[in-house]
Design goal:
CATH architecture of chain A: Beta Barrel
Radius of gyration of chain A: 23 Å
Oligomer: heterodimer
Number of domains of chain B: 1
Number of helices of chain A: 4
Strand order of the largest sheet of chain B: 1-2-3-4-5-6-7-8
Mean pLDDT of chain B: 84
Distance between the termini of chain B: 33 Å
Shape of chain A: globular
CATH topology of chain A: Porin
Strand content of chain A: 35-45%
Structural class of chain A: mainly beta
Structural class of chain B: mainly beta
Helix content of chain A: 10-25%
Largest interface: A-B, 41 and 45 residues
Shape of chain B: elongated
Radius of gyration of chain B: 18 Å
Largest sheet of chain A: 15 strands, antiparallel
Order of helices and strands of chain A: HHEEEEEEEEEEEEEEEEEHHEE
CATH class of chain A: Mainly Beta
Helix content of chain B: under 10%
Number of strands of chain A: 19
Distance between the termini of chain A: 52 Å
């Protein structure tokens, strides 16, 4: 009996020794983590009008050798995702019908995006071009929104980005085919923001004007570093827009409520999820390339912050809604 | 390396037991405990894993060399756990932004006070192979390392063979820090039971 006990214990111990919880697919070093690339992203929508989930899957990841006709840069890699129809809920695709599309991203030799093109069938419905200076800062971002069926182009925007020697821009000068969208976005250091990192020049900004997408109401774009889940490592990981207009549900300059909020969760410069919530059930987001490219564009979190709000359309009838769009990012080797 | 040491230790232990089985009654105890472990992370680091905590089942067996000294092996595997970033770590137990797993296994030396009517204090010193996994959803971080650890506890005698390990608190120092977090230290508290299979010692 006792010998059997010993044998049993010995067998159990040997079994324990051989046990492991580590899988072959686990990331065991930073080098392995850096080598991961985006394999798919899922756009989940939870809204009062319904829930949906659209999984964009990597279709190809090809090495190429060509000069971009749009930017003149050498393109060495092209990645394609198939994007299912997004539905007619919270996040829409400008220029495209509610149908499946294909997203193509061209990368320069240094790994930074050169162009982002959305195809619906064989038609280009969206095209974006990225231009950089010699310091690899984004200095120009060109947007071209077209629509299918031989209709005239919907929108052209050219954003020129001014840095004045700093890491983050001080101005974005917008030219557009829609004259009402043209103007200059000026950015100022946020004096009322708590926890702003002193290591980043002008860690908090707000915009003193906004475009047509926000119906030309007065909005403040606030940066709350204390809602940042990573300290100040990602200074633009979250933020909100306050409707400061007394029109359409805003509380006025001193009593406003967040009308849209967004938050990103990162790990080692990789976005794991992006969450957008809005205060009104009629609010609408438009899918923007920076939503999935902010990790590979220098100061990408800042531009995500800017363009997410820039492309946010609101009627601002309520500010107590919890409709949400979540983008989950899946990486692989 | 740790695995080889473990196998050697077990082999020697088993061989010695078999060899002297004719002359000496075995004195073995087995224990089962629930362990709550915490790996305190970084407050201000760039990637700021604030804390990682797991709840584990610990199984161990000891050969009682003498009344005060026992040498054995422990194995602990978590059945739940969470990782918490700076934002989530507000004592929202179990509501972290990631899942966490830990596994520990290694030799353990237990030094205890003598038999008493009720209470028996003990010190446990161990060297473990440690595996820590944080599941971020899209992928999992994992690290394998070793750790020196010690714990102190008190057991209450419930019968001739059964002890209740009322409370045990311990700490472990990893030989390497987790590559994704500034942490190389683990605290744990345990509670469970120990059962003597052999002759009292």
């Amino acid at each position: 009996m006792r010998f059997r006990n010993h044998a049993l214990i010995g067998i159990l111990l040997l079994a324990f020794i051989s046990c492991t919880i580590i899988k072959d697919s686990d990331i065991t070093s930073l080098a392995e983590l850096n080598a991961l690339s985006l394999k798919s992203f899922e756009i989940v929508q939870n809204s009062q009008v319904g829930n949906s989930s659209s999984l964009a899957i990597l279709k190809y990841d090809s090495v190429v050798n060509r000069i971009s006709g749009g930017t003149g840069a050498h393109v060495s890699r092209v990645v394609g995702f198939s994007l299912p129809a997004l539905g007619n809920q919270k996040i829409w695709l400008r220029g495209a019908s509610n149908t499946s599309t294909e997203v193509t991203i061209g990368y320069k030799d240094n790994g930074m995006p050169n162009a982002f093109v959305v195809y619906q069938g064989d038609s280009v419905v969206q095209a974006y071009k990225f231009f950089y200076n010699t310091s690899n800062q984004l200095i120009k971002f060109v947007t071209f929104i077209d629509s299918v069926d031989n209709k005239p182009p919907l929108l052209r925007i050219r954003d020129s980005i001014i840095y004045k020697g700093e890491t983050y821009p001080s101005q974005i000068i917008r030219k557009s085919s829609n004259p009402s969208l043209a103007g200059t976005f000026k950015m100022f250091g946020c004096t009322g923001c708590s926890g702003a990192s002193s290591s980043v020049s002008g860690a908090g900004f707000y915009f003193n004007q906004f475009g047509q997408q926000l119906n030309q109401q007065t909005y403040n774009l606030n940066y709350y570093s204390n809602c940042n889940n990573s300290g100040d490592a990602y200074p633009y990981s979250c933020g909100s827009v306050n409707n400061t207009s007394s029109i359409n549900g805003g509380g006025g300059p001193n009593g406003s409520q967040p009308n849209v909020t967004f938050q990103n969760n990162f790990t080692f410069n990789k976005t794991l999820e992006t969450i957008l919530t809005s205060g009104s059930n009629t609010d609408r987001y438009y899918f923007h390339p920076i939503m999935i490219l902010k990790d590979v564009v220098p100061q990408g979190s800042f531009y995500f912050w800017f363009y997410s709000i820039d492309w946010f359309k609101t009627d601002a009838t309520t500010n107590n809604n919890s409709d949400m769009v979540k983008i989950n990012f899946n990486y692989g080797q | 390396m740790a695995n080889r040491a473990m196998i050697l230790c077990i082999s020697l232990s088993a061989m010695s037991k078999i060899c002297i089985a004719q002359f000496q009654l075995p004195r073995i105890d087995v224990e089962a405990k629930v362990t709550q472990s915490v790996l305190p992370g970084d407050n201000s680091g760039n990637y700021s894993l604030k804390a990682l905590e797991t709840t584990s089942v610990l199984l161990a067996a000891h050969w009682q060399i003498s009344q005060h000294l026992a040498l054995g092996w422990l194995y602990s595997n978590s059945f739940r756990g969470s990782g918490y970033n700076l934002d989530d770590f507000k004592f929202n137990f179990g509501k972290g932004d990631s899942k966490a797993l830990t596994l520990l296994t290694g030799p353990d030396l237990r030094i205890s006070t003598g038999r008493a009517k009720k209470w028996r204090q003990y010190l446990s010193i161990n060297y473990c192979k440690v595996e820590v996994v944080e599941d971020k959803g899209s992928f999992r971080y994992s690290q394998k390392t070793n750790a020196f650890g010690a714990s102190v506890g008190v057991a209450r005698r419930l019968g001739n063979r059964l002890y209740w390990n009322v409370f045990e608190i311990g700490a472990k120092k990893f030989t390497d820090q987790l590559f994704w977090a500034n942490t190389s230290f683990m605290l744990d508290v345990k509670m469970g039971f120990t059962y003597n299979l052999g002759k009292k010692k």
